[in-house]
Structure formats: structure tokens, C-alpha cells
Design goal:
Helices cover 78% and strands 0% of the residues. With 120 residues, the protein is mainly α.
């Protein structure tokens, strides 16, 4: 049986925390969209942005790999497996971790400047 993570908290505090996290996610999303639109305008259009990102793929890949490494370190540091109280929870957590790795690999393969049609 899994441990109730909200035990001992009032429903209002839990609701307040959820609202705070949702607001934070919305602000980060809006900020990202604002930065993207400013960069695209500064570059002169979407085509120029695409060309620039294609030309600088190696540097951007290095940056993303550093971000992935930092996220992995943080994930391992918080030891999420301690949150799992039953073997079923641990299996589900391992499944989510595997799905995250597969998703990252698929995104990076799609972004790679390779003519996959010629390779297949």
C-alpha cells in the first residue's frame, strides 16, 4: 500500500500548493513563449531561426546534454525510490524513468540533422 503524501496537511494547504505549482508552470510557459517569439523576431523569421539552429546543432546538443545531466543528477539526488513504499510502486517508478529516457532519445533523434530516409 502506498504512503499518503498529503497526510497531516490540511486540504487548503494542499490546494494552495497545487495552485502555486500550476501558476508557476503557466508563468514558465508564457515566459518561454515570449522569449521564443522575441528570438524569432530578432532572427528575422522562423526560417532563419530554423537555419540558425540547424547550423549550431552541435552546441545546442551539448547544452541539452548538460541540462539532461543536471536533471538526472537532481533526480538521483532526491532518491525518488524512497517515495515508493511497495514493490509495485518501484516498478511503476522504473517504468516512468524508462519512458522518460526513451522520450528524450526520440526527441534528440528527431532533432538530429540526418537524412533518415537515405539511411533507411
Amino acid at each position: 500500500m502506498s504512503k499518503d503524501l498529503t497526510a497531516g496537511r490540511s486540504p487548503f494547504k494542499t490546494f494552495k500548493r497545487i495552485i502555486f505549482l500550476l501558476t508557476l508552470m503557466m508563468l514558465i510557459t508564457v515566459l518561454g513563449m515570449l522569449i521564443a517569439s522575441l528570438v524569432i523576431r530578432w532572427m528575422g523569421g522562423v526560417e532563419q531561426w530554423y537555419e540558425w539552429s540547424h547550423d549550431h546543432y552541435g552546441g545546442l546538443l551539448t547544452w541539452r546534454c548538460l541540462l539532461y545531466a543536471a536533471l538526472t543528477y537532481a533526480w538521483l539526488k532526491i532518491q525518488p525510490w524512497k517515495l515508493a513504499t511497495s514493490p509495485g510502486d518501484r516498478l511503476r517508478l522504473m517504468g516512468l524513468q524508462a519512458a522518460a529516457v526513451i522520450l528524450i532519445v526520440l526527441v534528440e533523434v528527431k532533432k538530429a540533422p540526418v537524412d533518415w530516409g537515405a539511411l533507411l
